[in-house]
Amino acid sequence: MSIIEDTYTLFIREMLIFKKNIGTNIARGLIFPLVFIILLGAFGSAPKNVPVALVNYDNSAASLNFINMLQSGGSIVVTSDTTQPLAMSELSSGQVAAVVVIPAGFSNPQGSSSIYTYLDNSQPQSAGVVSGVVEKIAAQFNVKSLTGATAPQAGADPISVVANYAYGAGSNYESFVVGGIIIMVAAFGAMFGSGFTVISDRQLGNLKTFLTTPINKYSILLSKIAYGTVQSSFSAYIGLAIGLLYGATIAAGLLGFIELLWIILLVGLGFGALSVAMATRAKQLQTYALISQTITMPLAFLGGAFVPVTLLPSFLRPVSVVNPLTYAVDATRDIMIKGYLPLSTLLLASAILLAFAVAMIALAVMFFRDTSRQI
Amino acid sequence: MSMAAAPANIIEIKNLVKRFGDFTAVGDISLDIKKGEIFGLLGPNGAGKSTTINILLGLLPPTSGSVMVNGIDMRKNPDKAKKEIGVVTQETVVEPELTATQNLMLFGKLHHIPASELQESIRFALDLSGLTGFKDAFAGTFSGGMKRRLETAKALMHAPQLLLLDEPTTGLDIQNRTQIWNLLREINKKQNVTILMTTQYLEEADQLCNRIGIIDHGKLIALGTPAELKRKIGMSSMIEVAADKDDLARVAAVFKKAGLEPQILTNKVVAPGGTNAVDKVQRLMRALTAAKITIQSINMHEPTIDDVFLKLTGSAVRDETGSDDAQKDATAALMGRGRSR
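^ Those are the sequences you sent over. The predicted structure of the assembly is below.
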């Protein structure tokens, strides 16, 4: 008899229990995303020191004055670029959250006095800050006061701001929030699905009974990981459905939807395996709950689920680089907001999440080799 | 299959040793269990009973020694050896969220019963447990006795040679307990299955078991039929005096003066009466009165397995009164000996 058949037998058991408790499982799937959508939706954060690339084609006293005023509030940090293409490449690589272009003839009262902004709306908090600051300063200038005037005057005929979004007008803050939440729900769901049932099965004597049958003992682990993946995907898909009702959109369309399901599945697999590995070592449910929360919550935060990774303090950046959730969140945002998913991003995310899952399965197997702790 | 004739013993334990670090849980136990018998394994908490059983089930590797199940080495060929054993663990393990049929289906598959025989095995198990009428009811709705019967039937689905039960009637009322006893006798006779059980109810071992083994401090200290074991402690009647806790030491002193070997329990003093037990009771009463000790009762009874157990291990398996003191004693004994595994 193969390990696959044993795993399937035990997996069916998990699914029968899952089906029996379907009400609880749906409720759990609903509550988590709802709470986070309400919390994060209501309190969009206002970051400081948002990096902005500025291209000044006018080079006049008025434009320099304008730049000084942009920086004075401390909300944004301006770096000057010589050309717009250079600035735009910084925008697309995520080095800056926005590009502000002051066109030639800005200080000419006869010319069209407009400021052009290009906003990275995959970082909606930052984009919001930049557009707010630019709009506010622009409103303090008026076209007639530009020539030779040192002090700006507000009045009729204000300077207009033309805002451009880097990734399609349909994307929004809701998509940003939901993209992070579904990844966090997937990670949390797996931790609560797999590991919890390992410990409760041990306490109830089920693990011991399974081990007295002639099955391959690792099929117990594999069935738990498979169940955790299902449980976590189930919760994350419910979260995604709530998110779409709440107003999030998937810019990449139907293909993007399928790609999202795939990313969620991989997160569930990796974190399911991590939770099983931890549960083979934790005696008490309380210990396990404490450890799993201590791991999952910071990983979700440092992975950019709530705040873009670019806004993290520099000493935390290395954590984001080795955090598998960073790549999952990146891929999700690309799919939901940018509207396209370059194959390289999908491959990178898939490769990293799969490698993480394989490493965690190996860890769980290593911990389960000696089963005397499990009886 | 080997060409050798089937062994006469279903279980052969040879020089079994199990150490956890410095602690020796099982120190050199050898024991044969014959085909067709009902064998009771007794011992106080932490005596090494559970460790022995866990090794027997292939759940723990022994430090040294060997376990053969129906001629198959558990260490070398665990998958094959495990097929010879059906297990009913102490924690009633039925899945409350699954129906009776689903419970049986799960274990049938875990025991690798071929798909063509699975339905028949399930029917057999439902019939044996008397749960055919409840086959599609969730096990969570069953009474304690029904759960035990389902679990016992589940353990027999794959037609094992040996049924191993860890405290099968703990927590059951007398009616359910009697039902389980009848079920076990039936299984033993009709299915020709050898039964190995542990129990904390010594009268259960006395009534049900053909042979009894007593384990203490990791050693097998007694082995024989209930009658043989009772003979071992002198075959005489037991004298028992219940008194105030503070007076027990003085009562014991009076016992000693009368030439008896007393043992002090939580609320009484007990000793084998030897020859002329009735005379000794009368003398004891006079001496107690002379010493101005108020007693609650005095009685004589035929020796039971409890008395054998007490004599051999120096402790009662279960205290009849179930008082807090008995709990504390049990806890202290447990801590002193290390946790049973």
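Strands of chain A lie at 50-56, 76-81, 98-102, 114-119, 160-165. DSSP finds 13 helices and five strands in chain A.

Shout if you want it in another format.
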